[in-house]
Amino acid sequence: MLNRYIVLTFSCLVIIFTSACKRHKIYKTETSDSTNVAIAQAGAPAQIDSVAPSVNLAKINVTPAEVDFRFLKIRSKINYTSGTESQSFPVTVHVEKDNKIWLSIAVGLEVARGIITQDSVIFIDRLHRTYYKYDFASLSRRFKFNLNYNLVQSILIGNMPLLKRETDDITRQDGNFVIRQLENGIAIENFIAESNLKLLKLTAAESTSGNRMQIDYSNFLEINNFLFPQEIITKIDTPKDDKTTQTFINLQHNRVEFLNESPGFSFSIPRGYSSN
Length: 276
What we know:
The protein is mainly beta. It has a single domain (about 5-260), classed as Lipoprotein localisation LolA/LolB/LppX (outer membrane lipoprotein receptor (LolB), chain A), CATH 2.50.20.10. It contains three helices and 15 strands. A 15-stranded mixed beta sheet has the order 1-8-9-10-11-12-13-14-2-3-4-5-6-7-15. Helix 1 (about 5-25) crosses helix 3. The two termini are about 15 Å apart.
C-alpha cells in the first residue's frame, strides 16, 4: 500500500492513479535511464552558479520563482518502481489554475479518468466499472498532513508546495537557498537555485517513523517566460523491520502548452458504475 509520502508527493494524483494501474497492470517496463523530451516553445535551461555555503539569510527576503498561467495542457509519462514491481503509463493532464485538474490515462483506449477540484477528488476506473470519490478533509485526517488542491497543483508544475512563511528558516548552501519548514511533525527542506530562484529539490522526513522523501526537479526549459521542469523524480524510503523499501516515481513531461482557452474538462460518472 502506498504510504502518506506518495500522497505528499502528488497527493491524490499519484496515489489514485498508481494504485489503479497496479490493479490494471497496464504494461510492464524495465527500469531505464531518463530520455530527452521535447516541450513546446522550449528554450535553454538556466545554469546555476556555486556560492559560499552556510550563510544565514533569515532576514533576507527570498521569493521563489513560480509558474503562472491560466490553462495548461500537459502530456506526461509516469514510471513507477517499488521493489521488483515496475509500471509505466502515459497521462494527459489539463489544469485550470487554482480551480481544477483533469487527468486521463489511455493505452489505446482510455482506462482511467480523474478530476481534482478545490474540495474533492473523483477517479473513474473504466476497466472495473467503478469510481472513487475523496474529499481533502478526510484525506488530510487519514494521512495526517494538510492535503489540498494547491499542494497537488504546485508539485505538478514545480512550484514550492508549502508557501514560504515568516517563521521559516533560510540559509545558503552550495549555490542554493534552503528554506526549512515544519508541518505536522514533518521536516521539509526546499532547495531554491540562487541564480533563478527555481525549486530544484525538496526533502521531507518524519523523525518518528524514519520515512523520508526526496523530489528532484530537472531539465528546466523556458516556456512563456517561465522555467518549467521537464522531469520530476521522487524517491521514497520506508523503513520497516530492519529493511527499507525504496519507491521511485518518475514524471516526465513530454509536452507542455500554456493556453488562453480551456482545453476541456469533460467528466461524468457513467451509469452502472459502482462506488468503491
